[in-house]
């Protein structure tokens, strides 16, 4: 997660000492070379007068610095955290387990340290991630045609009411209200940045959001109403295409999405989304630049609202829009994800 940078002297001292506590939280841009690095970079240390410190990779990029080839500041930092790597493997090995802080302690890691690490890397604690994984298993049981009671046990919920409450909070509807053979089908997708939910009909994707986004229930309720209650759980052909293209995206093979989209918005809003899709991966734009691109230079606030109304994450890349000063601005999936997405897409930049 983002935090307030300390003063320059403190950061320069951390740079000289290669202080790992700042990894992923602070970066140095070296004006004499045009390169930005992690504070733990093994390269020879620059003079203090040649250093500019930033809180995010996006800010470094916006200031014109390029990534260091020695410390790879755009590589996901979570892979270097032993606690994160070990607990993610444990979660995968024991998918139905109801994790507690005592379980975390038994793995040999301090729960408070683990909590901070997961919040920094993923925007949620390990226990929150484990609960979401359990709920996903119940979701898949329903999607495969299983009974709600079976889904409840698969998800590890002893109480039917607790399962219904958790399911309703996530999907926006109680399990019993979901239609069979529905027009719209919701499907879980696993990504390196967390679980996503994609809603599709037989032809196109209507929604793609991270499962922990606060607005997700509202968006799903809107689709439920628009489809006159024809919302269910299942996997359709566009989901299969989307999964393959997301895998290519996160593996660095391709930033191109060709899966059909069903867009719902005003002409103005859709014109903003069209411009967003024209921003090359690895580049960013400001709201004012988007406004100029659609021929309405005074409509910066309206552009920001249209950006926020996007409910097809990644494919309509609202994460590529930053503040005019180069800072990260609001993102429904969390600023930590926005930073990670910009870092990931740096590899797609054309030099």
Automatic annotation (TrEMBL):
It holds the Pfam family Ada_Zn_binding. PROSITE patterns: HTH_ARAC_FAMILY_2, MGMT. Its cofactor is Zn(2+). The active site is at residues 37, 318. It comes from the Bacteria. Residues 105-181 form the HTH araC/xylS-type domain. InterPro entries: Ada-like_dom_sf, Ada_DNA_repair_Zn-bd, Bifunct_regulatory_prot_Ada, HTH_AraC, MethylDNA_cys_MeTrfase_AS, MethylDNA_cys_MeTrfase_DNA-bd, MethylDNA_cys_MeTrfase_DNAb, MGMT_N_sf. It catalyses: a 4-O-methyl-thymidine in DNA + L-cysteinyl-[protein] = a thymidine in DNA + S-methyl-L-cysteinyl-[protein]; a 6-O-methyl-2'-deoxyguanosine in DNA + L-cysteinyl-[protein] = S-methyl-L-cysteinyl-[protein] + a 2'-deoxyguanosine in DNA. Keywords: Activator, DNA damage, DNA repair, Metal-binding, Methyltransferase, Transferase, Zinc. Zn(2+) binds at residues 37, 41, 68, 71. Belongs to the MGMT family. PANTHER family: METHYLATED-DNA--PROTEIN-CYSTEINE METHYLTRANSFERASE. This is methylated-DNA--[protein]-cysteine S-methyltransferase. It comes from Sphingomonas oleivorans.
């Amino acid at each position: 997660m983002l935090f307030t940078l300390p003063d320059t002297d403190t950061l320069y001292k951390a740079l000289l000492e290669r202080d790992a506590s700042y990894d992923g939280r602070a970066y140095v841009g070296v004006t004499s070379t045009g390169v930005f690095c992690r504070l733990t970079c093994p390269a020879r240390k620059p003079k203090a007068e040649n250093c500019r410190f930033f809180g995010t990779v996006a800010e470094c990029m916006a200031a014109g610095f390029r990534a260091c080839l020695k410390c790879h500041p755009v590589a996901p930092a979570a892979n270097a955290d032993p606690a994160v790597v070990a607990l993610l493997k444990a979660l995968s090995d024991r998918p139905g387990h109801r994790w507690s802080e005592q379980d975390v302690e038994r793995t040999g890691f301090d729960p408070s340290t683990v909590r901070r690490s997961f919040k920094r890397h993923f925007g949620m604690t390990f226990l929150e991630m484990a609960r979401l994984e359990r709920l996903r298993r119940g979701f898949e049981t329903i999607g495969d045609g299983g009974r709600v009671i079976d889904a409840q046990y698969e998800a590890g919920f002893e109480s039917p009411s607790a399962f219904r409450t958790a399911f309703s909070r996530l999907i926006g509807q109680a399990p019993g209200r979901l239609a069979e053979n529905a027009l719209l089908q919701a499907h879980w997708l696993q990504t390196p940045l967390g679980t996503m939910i994609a809603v599709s009909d037989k032809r196109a994707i209507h929604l793609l959001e991270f499962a922990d986004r606060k607005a997700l229930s509202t968006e799903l309720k809107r689709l439920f109403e628009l489809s006159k209650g024809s919302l269910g759980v299942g996997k359709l052909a566009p989901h299969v295409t989307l999964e393959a293209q997301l895998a290519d995206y996160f593996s660095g093979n391709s930033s191109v999405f060709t899966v059909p989209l069903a867009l719902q918005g005003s002409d103005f809003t859709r014109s903003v989304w069209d411009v967003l899709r024209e921003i090359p991966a690895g580049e960013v734009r400001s709201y004012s630049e988007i406004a100029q691109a659609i021929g309405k230079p005074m409509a910066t606030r309206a552009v920001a609202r249209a950006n926020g109304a996007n409910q097809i994450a990644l494919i309509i890349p609202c994460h590529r829009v930053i503040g005019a000063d180069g800072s990260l601005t609001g993102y429904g999936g969390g600023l930590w994800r926005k930073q990670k997405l910009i870092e990931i897409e740096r590899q797609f930049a054309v030099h």
